[in-house]
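Input for the complex:
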Amino acid sequence: MRKDFRTKKRDSRPNNSKNKNNSKNERRDNSQDSNRGGSNNSTMSSSTKRSSRNENRNSRSRDSNQSTNNMPKRDDRRGNNRNNNFRRSNNHSKRDGRNTTERDNKIRSRTRHKSSMTPKVELGFNEYRLKGIYSSKSKRGIAFYTKSYDPGNIVYDEKIVSIKNIEYREWNPKKSKLGAAIYNGCSQIGIKPGSTVLYLGCSTGTTCSHVSDIIGEGGFLFGLDVAPRVMREFVFLCEKRKNMAPLLKDAHQPSQYTDVVPKVDVVFQDIAQRDQVDIFIKNCDTFLKENGTGMIAVKARSMDVTRRPNEIFEEVRKVLEEKMAICDSRTLEPYEKDHYFFVVKHKK
Ligand SMILES: C[S@@+](CC[C@H](N)C(=O)[O-])C[C@H]1O[C@@H](n2cnc3c(N)ncnc32)[C@H](O)[C@@H]1O
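Predicted:
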């Protein structure tokens, strides 16, 4: 019923306004024609145009009457609107003096480009410059992964990405100091497929699990911790991951596990103790192969809470330098507050 009203309204448009429009058009037509320079022909053509325009208008109002009587479907009306919008934008672009199709094509091509740039893990998933470590770039930044040694299981709350039926575990730098060092650009970790590793302070095995992924079937990790509570969980993890073994020992006394642990490619230490540097040097002296790599995550606060962390790190550097060659050192911020990471080798 509303449509009828609208139709009526359109039909009952006062003739004056129509005439006004007509006279306006007439004036515009005349001026256009005079600009074009035609005299008789132009008058002829303007009157012909006028009559044809009136005819068009009548036929349009006839059409609209017909369409309202036929009750157009919702979709039809939408279609009409779309056409109107198109017509409007068309006019606008004409006013701007720009070619519509050219502009439309530009917009279309920009949209296509944008959608093809949508970040997908698969697209940016590459083997990183460190063997056994994978990286992907997304809007959030770079993320590192290791290929799961034990597919179908997660160790902590890490994210899993599956590509062609292979599971990759995202390495969380906030939960792993070795992870934090890698995210901060450390590349001399010495851990690669087939490596043997002595891990001091393994806890429940968060970082060990990623190391286990990297070293794979051919490698082996000895995970040592003094706390029975965390060791219990680590034992369960070692049952699933056959390239790891638990050692419930105190890292102060390497002599207690020399019969179990052979010379290794990597000694890694994450132990929050006052004498952590002494423990590290002792274990490197006992277990690190000649060409092996030693890594230590130093926590300033557990060495001395009263001193500035940077002072402590400089002191640690001097002590390490006396015995070993430092190949890399860097902060673990922003992932770990007041922590520093050192990579060392035996002096030659
Ligand atoms: C910060 S946590 C290690 C976290 C682990 N690296 C990880 O990323 O999942 C420190 C661990 O060192 C262990 N620890 C402390 N003193 C130790 C010692 N003298 N010998 C062996 N382990 C020790 C603690 O029991 C604790 O589990």
